[in-house]
Amino acid sequence: PGKQAQLMEVLKKEVRAMLIAAKEGLTPAQLEEQYMAMVCKPLPLQDLGFQSTLEMVKHMPEVVRISSYSNGSFILKAIADDTTKGIAKLVACQKDRTRTKAWKKTAMKANAASPSRNIKHPQRSPWSARTPALPVTVKAELQDLLSSSPLLLKDLDKAFFRRFGRVFPYRQYGFSSVLEALRSMSDSIAVVEQAKAGSLLVLRKYLANVVEQEEVPRAPAAEMPPLEPIYDTESFCQTALPMKCEPVPTEAADLGDHLKQPQDSHQFLPKKLTLTPEIPPDAVQDRSLCSLPPLKRRCLVGVFVEFVASPSQFYIHICSRETSYKLQDLMFEMRHLYSHKLVSDQYVMPDSAVRPGQLCCVRVSKWWYRVIIHRVVSDQEVEVFYADYGHLHVVQKCWLRFLKWHYLKLPAQAIPCSLAWVKPVEGTWSPAATLLFKNLCRLKELVGIVDEYVDGVLHLFLCDTSTKEDVYFHSVLRDKGYADVCGENIPSQEFKELNPSALYVQPSGKETAELEEPYLCLQQESLDAHSEAAALKLQGAEPCDR
To answer: Is 254 exposed, middle or buried (0-12, 13-18, 19+ CB in 10 A)?
Structure first.
């Protein structure tokens, strides 16, 4: 009986958390699926002596409100207690915002104290109840998979593995099923029910073409945009020595009269004569990307950590529905455009333009990325900085193309960061400390609590709310003996030595107001004075030596 009572109390907390996260409630079957996804085992009905999930929740009157309907169905909703009323209020506010373009506001109200208020027993963050979300790259892969043809739902796993060499990682991002993950992309992917073959996955922009075909689950190829590159990376540049980049013979696609050129314009030129192509007027030559607007102090934001050099040098993406779509649309549009040989040839960069600081784009594994040339390595290679992802990488010169002016509008998405209030115990971060930090960040959405900017670098706390207890990364590094926690931020030595963002990306300001559109719709609210004062105190914290 004692063990059963203890199990029941734990189960009540888990059920309340899942129901609070579900704004519209869950059916008993959905609750079973959510529990399996979160705990990786079924509800312990037999251990508690229950015959069904409905019978179990009836014994939780202080946790679950059961609504019955005339069709015999039941909806389960949470009853908030004193510790979860704040979360319930946030969910209710989010529900109201959904009816008035809430998709533009993805950050919840910040009504929680600093992560350091109670290090040993941190309070649960409002972000613990957030809605699962797929990263931009995974969304792009799904759209890429469906761009050539619709796909049956039952064949998705095999097709995804065949195309990308790994299984579709929907559970990794908090989804209980493939269908649930696909429904999170309902604005771009439609699930068409078919009695004979099963559910069919279709890109919404091609839906009309598919609905007209009842028997053949395939949209007309002529209606599909040519997203597949005309050439592969391997053939795009000959990598054997001596290095020699040559255009690959392909058929130029019809992109409209404004891009057409006479096919016989050079037919009478001598074979050995090579012409230096004119630089297109919309090619970016002397402009820079701007940075994202600075985040307010003490605001909470969802983040993905994209690149880690150490706990004092890493880059993040802000998890915002609109920013994710903006970057995703940019990637698809660039791939669509530059995959045509006619366009690609027009934007080839002459050697005179391949210089440090030049903003351009590079093709890697069929995708195009905005990059800034950091240094010229050799006659064939350059090192570039990926403005939207934060890392440096050596690429072939012949993979580079001028960036079209249109692609300047979206600010650089990678934000240089350091973990707030920590310094390495040994003076520099050990490989073990960096590895631990990378593992904490790996492939998951985290909550970032903004502290301040120091020399253009964002110092923030990071918290993983996907576990039973919130995990604050500065506490983990301290408890493992890798870091000292202090009450101030030490300027990152690594970023002092090299900060490509500071070198090549302009701060967000009035000078770029005409170029960019308002797009970052994060709901930010500073904490009240009491919470902020409490946040500035860590138990046993002492000023760090600079």
So the answer is: exposed
